[in-house]
Write a structure and sequence with these properties.
Strand 1 and strand 2 (31-34) form a beta hairpin. The chain has one domain (9-70). The chain has 72 residues and is of the alpha+beta class. Helix 1 (47-55) packs across helix 2. Strands 1-2 form a two-stranded antiparallel ribbon. Helices cover 32% and strands 11% of the residues.
Length: 72
């Protein structure tokens, strides 16, 4: 673990990937708060998965446990 980085366990996120509110518009035209930050530069490996893991750690643990049990 490098200087200035925090380990968030299963997500593998660093301090720069901590969720921060962002505003965005959807097709209805309403502005909503998005519960995650834009992934840091260089983080191209499945960024959607990391967002889900940060927001819903229990669901990801359940999913990973299911994958582990399916392996031969």
């Amino acid at each position: 673990m490098g200087s200035g980085q925090l380990d968030f366990g299963i997500t593998g996120a660093t301090w720069s990937a901590i969720p921060t509110p962002r505003t965005g518009t959807f097709c209805s035209g309403s502005v909503v708060e998005l519960p995650y930050a834009v992934p840091p530069a260089g983080l191209t490996r499945r960024p959607g998965r990391k967002r889900i893991a940060t927001a819903y750690p229990n669901l990801v643990r359940k999913d990973l446990a299911a994958k582990a049990s399916r392996q031969p």
